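Students often ask what a holo structure prediction actually looks like on paper. The answer is less mysterious than it sounds. You provide the chain, you provide the ligand, and the output is a string of C-alpha cells encoding the 3D arrangement of the protein together with zinc ion.
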Amino acid sequence: MKKNFRIFVYSDYPCASLNIDVVQERINELGFPVEDRGNLIDFLSLSEQGIYKLGQDLSSVQIPDISIPVDSTNPPDRNEIASEVNRILGRESAAGKFYDGFWIQRILYRALAEKVADEIKSGFIHLIFTSRLFGTFENRRYHARVVLMGTPALISTSGLVEAPAKPKEYYYIKGRLIQTGRDVSELDRMYKGRFVEYDDPNISSILPSYALQAVGYEITGNAFCEDPDCCLFNSHWQEDVLKVQYNGNPCEKCMELIRGK
Ligand SMILES: [Zn+2]
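The corresponding C-alpha cells follow.
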C-alpha cells in the first residue's frame, strides 16, 4: 500500500447483520490496515446542542420527491428533527427515509473536520458504514447508491439492498401480481438468494469490496474498474454483487494501483 495512508472506519447504526470486524479483517488481509473508530456519534462526542443541529441538518436533506434535487433549504419540520435526533442516537430506525448523499457527506465532513481537523487531508481515508439510504441526482431523478466516494466515504447497508437491481423478470412478475391484486411475498421466497436482503448475513462479506472501492478511489482517483470479475467493478445487478463483490477479489491491475507498486 502507498505509504502514509491511514484508513478509519466508523459506524452509524448499519444493519445488525453487518459485522465490522469481518470487514476490517478482510481489508487488513488485502494489506490495508484499518483503524476502527466505532460508533460515529460517540466518536464525534457532540454536545446536546450539536446533536440537535446535526438532526436539523440531516432532516433537511431528506428527499421528499425523487425528481427534485434537494437544495438544503427544505425547512426542517420539528417532529422530523426530533425523529432524526433519535436516529442519530440509534433509538429510531432510518428505514423508509431517503437522503441526498452529497449533502450527508458535506454535513459529516464538517462534523469530522471539527473533531479531527488535522486528519481531513490527503493520506487519511474515512469510511462511514450507515443504514441511511442515500442517493445522487442524475438523469432527472435520484438513484440510490451503495457507496459514495469522497471524504468521508459513505457505505450504506440499505443501499446494498435497494440500489443494485434485482433480476429483470422479478420486476415483471411483481408488476403482474400487483396488477391482479395478488400477494407478492411468495415471489420474494422464490427469488431468495438472488438478491441481498435486509439483515442478510452476506452483507459482511460483500461490503469490504465497497470499502475497497472507496479506498481505491482516494488513492488512485479511479472510481471503478472495467473488469467485470474485479470487486472494484461497478455492479448494477444484485446477481453480480452476489458474485463479484461477494468474492471480493480485486484484479491484479487494481491491486498494483492501490498498493502503489
Ligand atoms: Zn480491477
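The two ends are 8 Å apart (CA to CA).
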